[in-house]
TrEMBL record:
Entry annotated with the keyword Membrane: no
Gene Ontology annotations for the cellular component aspect, listed alphabetically: cytoplasm; ribosome
Localisation: Cytoplasm
Enzyme class: transferase
Entry-linked InterPro entries: Ribosomal_L11_MeTrfase_PrmA (IPR050078), Ribosomal_PrmA_MeTrfase (IPR004498), SAM-dependent_MTases_sf (IPR029063)
Transmembrane regions listed in the UniProt entry: none
Main location: cytoplasm
Residues noted as binding S-adenosyl-L-methionine in the record, renumbered to the chain: T130, G151, D173, N215
GO molecular function, one term: protein-lysine N-methyltransferase activity
Lineage, uppermost ranks: Bacteria, Pseudomonadati, Bacteroidota, Bacteroidia, Bacteroidales
Function of the protein: Methylates ribosomal protein L11.
GO BP, one annotated term: methylation
Protein name: Ribosomal protein L11 methyltransferase
Amino acid sequence: MKYVEVIFSCKPDTEEVTDVLAAQLADLGFESFVKSSPGLLAYLPEEKFSVEDIDLLLQDFFLDAEIAYSYNVIEDKNWNEEWEKHYFQPIVFEDKCIIHSSFHHPEGSYRYRILIDPKMAFGTGHHQTTGLILREILSMDLQKRSVLDMGCGTAVLAILASMCGADPLLAIDVDEWAYRNALENVRLNGIENIDVLHGDARLLGSQTFDVIFANINRNILLQDIPAYAKVLNRGGKLLLSGFYREDIPAIREKCEEQGLLYHHFSEMDNWVAVVCEK
Ligand SMILES: C[S@@+](CC[C@H](N)C(=O)[O-])C[C@H]1O[C@@H](n2cnc3c(N)ncnc32)[C@H](O)[C@@H]1O
């Protein structure tokens, strides 16, 4: 599969500009982002690439910034090598969980060692939203809890939950590449109790869960919260991320409409994770 690498240069090159740009590009189908100077590298499959879509997004960009871009078509294989060599460094959470790739050999003793070979899927732990949910997971008792990871990307959240004792687990992603990468990572970590499916909330049926993670984006969450609420067990927790602090009221209202109780939120660089309970 061929990918397009789009190089955005932003003036001013602030985190606010690149974060908002990345969030809007994700809605156009961009799958991976790397901060660069000055701006952002963004990647998507060649068949989803449209110059018109990007031009329109930049015309309507609501922050005061000058953004220019250029692009190259790259082979998937080269992308993986580049990613592995330059972009993905091991990352540690709360001194007890390390996420690294199979080409890293980090020292130190950690209760949870997660191996992720990310390819094009989102979820190395480096994005604020992944980190927010990983920290929530580390603070929970997941022993024998059934877990759904919607929008699983690399499946990093489901893998940590499984290592923390959750059982059984279901991980779902709408993107075929993420689905295949999730399968690979689950296998790589020797985990046997995570089912991985390719699709979206329409796959949810009679199976119910004690805990649901959904780190996707504001619009998909607003659309799918009713489906998640339906399959959440009484007393169960819904962990949502992929949106900004200013989106909390809309997300909270949608959860409350479905009979969920708002519990708390955590925040990093204006990205948030919200926890609700049924
Ligand atoms: C922000 S990434 C999160 C990945 C990973 N869970 C993490 O926390 O790092 C969002 C993922 O949701 C997937 N996605 C987008 N829309 C979806 C939908 N309607 N249903 C399921 N997955 C979806 C994307 O393909 C992407 O892999």
